[in-house]
Design goal:
The protein is an all-alpha fold. It has one domain. Helix content is about 95%, strand content about 0%. The chain contains one helix and no strands. It has one helix spanning about 1-40. The longest helix has about 40 residues, at about 1-40. It starts with a helix and ends with a helix. This is ABC transporter permease. Keywords: Membrane, Transmembrane, Transmembrane helix.
């Protein structure tokens, strides 16, 4: 049980530290998708 709690806490810490990187990746993917949509018109 301690292992599960520790890994969950570690995963939460990892997400807290790197949420901006995930947001940056999602913003790039959204921009590429929007560009492809506009180019297909």
């Amino acid at each position: 049980m301690h292992l599960i709690q520790g890994s969950t806490r570690g995963l939460g810490l990892l997400l807290d530290l790197n949420w901006d990187r995930a947001f940056f990746g999602a913003a790039i993917a959204a921009a590429l998708s929007a560009g492809a949509f506009v180019a297909s018109l």
